[in-house]
């Protein structure tokens, strides 16, 4: 879809549109398609990062590890911790596998007003959780 440069500038500069950004990674997408979508979302985030105040990244069981982990690292490096009010990272696992229940059981990491250090620690915790539950 083609739009004028004026509309493009307006779209990317409107703070209300970029207050919150949610990335959902599901196992239904084929690997190459998922990788392209995550690459596009990381590029978009790099462009609007100063406007993002709440960022959420959720992975559902079975998503591709390499694409997921490297793209999350790209997204987190683009964010500006001083402007970020909330960060939420989640790796959802099937509770049917662990407790005989339904979907999902999750292991979230949520930070309010994260610093660079707490952001890195949250990412490491997320990566370890996803590795343990076979999301990554």
Described by the principal axes of the CA atoms, the overall outline is globular
Largest beta-sheet details: 5 strands, mixed
Q: Which secondary-structure class do the elements indicate?
A: alpha/beta
Helix amount: 40-55%
- Tally of domains: 1
Terminal residue distance: 34 Å
H/E topology pattern: HEHEHEHEEH
Rounded Rg: 16 Å
Task: Give the overall average pLDDT.
Answer: 77
* Count of individual helical segments: 5
What's the count of strands?
A: 5
Uncertain runs: 94-104
Strand content: 15-25%
Care to describe what's here?
- The protein is globular and about 45 Å long.
- It has one domain (17-132).
- It has 5 helices and 5 strands.
- The protein has helices spanning 5-13, 31-48, 65-78, 95-98, 116-132, and strands spanning 20-25, 54-60, 86-93, 105-106, 109-112.
- With 136 residues, it is α/β, with parallel strands linked by helices.
- 46% of the residues lie in helices and 20% in strands.
- Residues 94-104 have low confidence and may be disordered.
């Amino acid at each position: 879809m083609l739009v004028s440069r004026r509309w493009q500038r307006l779209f990317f500069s409107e703070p209300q549109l970029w207050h919150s950004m949610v990335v959902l990674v599901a196992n239904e997408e084929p690997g190459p398609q998922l990788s392209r979508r995550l690459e596009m979302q990381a590029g978009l985030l790099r462009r609007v990062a100063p406007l993002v105040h709440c960022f959420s990244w959720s992975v559902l069981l079975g998503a591709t590890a390499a694409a997921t982990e490297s793209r999350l690292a790209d997204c987190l490096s683009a964010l500006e911790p001083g402007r970020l009010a909330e960060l939420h990272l989640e790796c959802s696992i099937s509770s049917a596998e662990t407790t005989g229940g339904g979907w999902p059981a999750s292991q979230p990491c949520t930070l309010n007003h994260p610093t660079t250090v707490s952001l890195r620690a949250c990412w490491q915790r997320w990566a370890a959780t996803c590795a343990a539950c076979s999301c990554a």
